[in-house]
Design a protein that fits this description.
With about 650 residues, the chain is mainly alpha-helical. It contains 24 helices and 2 strands.
Length: about 650
């Protein structure tokens, strides 16, 4: 495709409709995945493959039209990330009994629209002038340019999705044929030992996509929590009189359990009450560090972007360089901020404070959208530290609001989270927008058309978020696991946001553990800086380590195994290949991994709707005589996970996208 073809169709009616359908489906799938695993995955490449197949079947479908579809569809990942990282905190704090449709739509929709507008002046600086990588955008462009066999891609996505869906159906929320996890725990003397893995094919797929480096970092964080911090706390700090209530809780939980079951229960209680706050401290440090390290690049990027926008005003420029007009961008920012000001006023009941919240949101939104866009260009959207950025936003907003509302305010934490939620949605969309604009820059698309499509996709996704969240909350539970919700979705980042907001306003938080976590975060940053100076082939991102510390070990183990599979596959391609050649040959594996994730997530959504509709958690459960429980069930689950891993390895190592 030559970049000069201005007459090729782009923003067509069928492209818009297909994009909206894909965006809403991917938003629901990523909502489930993000609440479950604490991370979402970029969806541009699967969306591009589906678009090529569907539009070809409808007749035609050029590269620019397919690019528009994947641009809008990728909003499904961004809006889902922005919402699940923050909005569940409002329910976890008890402010909402459930997810309010119009409030969630306003937060996600207006935040997404602001993210599109905030990112407009950054396009020229980061994509044209600085020529930043934007790895997912570059990969999506290569898929579109190559015109790779869409039938082969759809077949891979379809088969892998079927495998992921069956894997989810077999587990405890579906047929209950096998358990969700395989765990081994017990006491070795006084040492509390804990190891295990979730049996989820989707987590294997997540690991394959993020790679061995990130997989190793997140599992190391979990090993630090479960195999060092929890045993040390159990042996040396739990007997302290100050922990009498916590010790009594553990003793009551262990009253009728075996030694192994007691060890597992003790580990989970200690993690929930104390150890996960190490991750909070590390995450706070990571978010602040991201701002410090990027301050120079952000300022220069914003200046050059605004200067380019002024210089181009009224000039005759090529269609490949036409952004949304800056005048309309500024008008849009004002128009979309006004309803947010009304929303904030309804929360605090004070016009002045509502106005201050709006100002904080706009300033922080633009700043952190710049951070998100820059980081997306550097390390990709999947590794973008948006959760750290959002924590920094909530921390700053909470400190300002304390001055207005007082430290004992009950509405203060809610107001801080509301600001953070809009900023988070905007930052997620901004990073995603620049990825899509990079793909468009490579294939010769018109920027303003992509920006309009992403805005449409963002609002479409925002419209389905509240129903999806309510269904998941009712069917699985959101937050820490309880006897009523044993398969509850952890919502790691939302718990973090709630903890930080409540802590600033005088809530009960284990500040000693948060402080230790902050020290760990500083140590990780120093170690990573040494690796960077030595140009080591791997890195230790502090936010990835913090997520590992916070989330359960069994969630991180399959992510590590998926990353290891990716490494073994790329090693099988042979030596001497460039990074681009490896990416192209590994595309089949990436599609397979995306299929596993999508299939399991959509099956999780389907099961959730069935549970929601019947109000029966066992709606699909097999008779007890057919369920494989206990140790045998765990071994069967491990065997099935190994089969999926072997299947993914076999498909992936073939490389390329030629028909099988």
């Amino acid at each position: 495709m030559n970049a000069a073809d201005a007459t090729a169709p782009q923003l067509t009616a069928r492209a818009i409709i297909l994009s909206i359908v894909l965006a809403t489906v991917l938003a629901a799938a990523n909502t489930y995945l993000g609440l479950f695993a604490g991370m979402t995955i970029a969806s541009a490449i699967p969306a591009a493959v589906v678009s090529m197949a569907v539009l070809r079947a409808l007749g035609g479908g050029g590269i620019l039209e397919n690019n528009i579809v994947q641009t809008g569809a990728s909003a499904g990942t961004s809006i889902a990330s922005g919402v699940i990282f923050t909005v569940p905190a409002l329910v976890l704090m008890g402010y909402w009994p459930d997810f309010k449709y119009w409030w969630v739509l306003a937060i996600a929709g207006l935040g997404g629209l602001l993210g599109v507008l905030f990112s407009v002046p950054l396009r020229r600086s980061l994509i044209v002038d600085q020529q930043m990588t934007f790895p997912e955008g570059k990969a999506a462009a290569e898929v579109l340019k190559a015109g790779e066999n869409p039938a082969a891609g759809i077949r891979i996505l379809g088969l892998a999705s079927l495998g992921g869906a069956i894997g989810k159906l077999f587990t405890a929320s579906g047929l209950r044929l096998i358990p969700d996890s395989s765990l081994a725990s017990g006491f070795i003397g006084k040492y509390l030992g804990y190891m295990g893995t979730n049996l989820s094919p989707a987590l294997l797929g997540v690991g394959y996509i993020v790679g061995l480096n990130i997989g190793a970092v997140v599992v190391s964080g979990s090993l630090l929590s479960f195999n060092i911090a929890i045993p040390l706390y159990h042996e040396y700090f739990l007997p302290d009189p100050e922990n009498a209530d916590l010790a009594a809780t553990i003793a009551a939980a262990c009253a009728n359990l075996t030694s192994s079951e007691c060890a597992e229960a003790s580990a989970q209680i200690l993690r929930g009450a104390r150890i996960r706050y190490l991750g909070v401290g590390a995450m706070l440090v990571g978010g602040l560090w991201a701002l410090i390290t990027l301050r120079g690049s952000i300022v220069s990027g914003v200046k050059s972007g605004l200067a380019a926008a002024r210089a181009g005003s009224g000039a005759l420029i090529a269609h490949t360089d036409r952004d949304l007009p800056m005048k309309w961008v500024l008008i849009g920012i004002v128009l979309f901020t006004l309803p947010l000001g009304v929303l904030y006023y309804n929360i605090v009941g004070n016009l002045g404070i509502g106005l201050a919240m709006s100002v904080i949101m706009v300033v922080a939104g633009f700043l952190f959208c710049s951070v998100s866009a820059y980081m997306a260009g550097l390390v990709g959207s999947s590794n973008n530290p948006v959760s750290g950025i959002t924590i920094a936003t909530i921390l700053f907003a909470a400190l300002v609001l304390v001055a207005f509302l007082g430290k004992t305010s009950t509405i203060g934490p809610v107001a801080a989270v509301m600001i953070g939620a809009v900023v988070c949605c905007a930052a997620c969309i901004a990073g995603d927008n620049l990825q899509d604009l990079k793909a468009g820059y490579i294939v010769g698309a018109t920027p303003w058309r992509q920006q309009v499509m992403l805005a449409i996709g963002a609002v479409s996704c925002a419209a389905v978020m509240a129903p999806t969240l309510n269904m998941l909350a009712h069917s699985y539970g959101i937050g820490p696991r309880t006897p009523e919700h044993p398969q509850s979705l952890e919502a790691a980042q939302a718990n973090l946001m709630a903890s930080v907001a409540k802590g600033i306003f005088g809530g009960e938080l284990p500040w000693d553990m948060i402080a230790i976590g902050a020290v760990i975060g500083v140590a990780v940053i120093i170690f990573d800086s040494i690796l960077k100076a030595k140009k080591a082939p791997f890195r230790v991102p502090v936010l990835a380590a913090a997520i590992g510390i916070y989330l359960p070990l069994e969630t991180m183990v399959p992510i590590f195994l998926g990353g290891l599979l990716n490494y073994l596959v790329t090693r099988s391609f042979g030596k001497g290949l460039s990074e681009e050649e490896v990416e192209k040959r590994n595309r089949k594996g990436m599609l397979f991994a995306a299929g596993l994730i999508t299939g399991e997530a959509l099956m999780g959504i389907f099961i959730g709707f069935a549970i929601y509709g019947t109000d029966r958690a066992d709606v699909f459960a097999l008779p007890a005589s057919l369920q494989i429980g206990g140790t045998l069930g765990e071994w069967v689950g491990l065997a099935l996970l190994a089969v999926v891993g072997g299947w993914m390895y076999r498909v992936s190592k073939r490389g390329g996208m030629e028909p099988q």
